[in-house]
Design a protein that fits this description.
This protein is of the alpha+beta class. The chain is built from 6 helices and 4 strands. A hairpin with a 5-residue loop joins strand 3 and strand 4.
């Protein structure tokens, strides 16, 4: 007797087979970063190694060149260079300490008042520091002496250290033809010691003007056609003289 299941309208299915899915490949960004860092480190290490080899090669070449130069070194040449350098230093030092003596006398002249007369003057230089002027001065009164000292002190060139010594008062008499005293006036003699620092009177060279070169005029070279043209266009001498008389 057939079972009820054979008469069922639901179709029968065989056993279901499950398909095996392949394993999924998961990629993480941290893995990529790790790979990049690893390869970068390898490349950097190789680059540093090659660069170190290059630097060592250059160092060896420079050491070899230095040894070659040391072998060809001459003590006489070094002595010549040292002597020449010493002369250059001395010349530069002398140029830096060059002074203008004319500026000293100009400053002394501008700082001397009208009632003062300089009888004797001596000038000496103390190394590269200053000039010392010793002047024997003649004036008419003590007031002129004091005023002259103040003028010296206000000078831009002369130092403030001014010494006035050997002040003496005399009388000067004016005689006539017969030897009689006509008039007399008091005279004050004193010695002034002045100091002028060298930095106040530096020497400043001036450029010489360029010599004027004479102008040379080269006459033009005329060919035959030009000569004929000049002769054709020349002015008659008689008409030129007539025009000149009219003017």
């Amino acid at each position: 007797m057939p079972s009820s299941s054979d008469n069922s309208f639901i179709p029968k299915r065989g056993p279901v087979k499950r398909k095996q899915s392949g394993s999924s490949r998961q990629v993480y960004i941290f893995t990529y970063i790790s790979y990049v860092l690893m390869f970068s480190t390898l490349l950097a290490t190789g680059g540093v190694f090659l660069y170190g080899q290059y630097i060592d090669k250059q160092l060896d070449e420079e050491i070899a060149n230095l040894n070659t130069e040391i072998g060809s070194f001459s003590g006489e040449d070094l002595a010549k260079v040292t002597e020449f350098d010493l002369r250059l230093q001395q010349a530069a030092f002398r140029l830096d300490n060059s002074v203008s003596v004319a500026s000293v006398f100009e400053a002394l002249q501008s700082a001397t008042i009208d009632t003062v007369q300089i009888e004797r003057l001596s000038l000496s230089r103390e190394e590269d520091e200053k000039f010392v002027l010793t002047a024997s001065i003649l004036t008419d009164s003590f007031d002129s002496t004091i005023f002259q000292r103040g003028v010296f002190g206000r000078s831009d060139v002369i130092s403030d250290e001014i010494s006035i010594d050997s002040v003496d008062t005399n009388t000067t008499s004016n005689l006539d033809g017969g030897g009689a005293v006509v008039s007399s006036r008091p005279v004050v003699n004193f010695t002034a010691i002045l100091e002028v620092p060298l930095e106040n009177v530096p020497y400043t060279p001036t450029a010489r003007p360029a010599a004027e070169t004479p102008l040379t005029v080269t006459p033009p070279i005329l060919n035959e056609s030009a000569t004929n043209t000049v002769e054709t266009n020349s002015v008659d001498e008689e008409s030129l003289e007539a025009n000149t008389d009219t003017i």
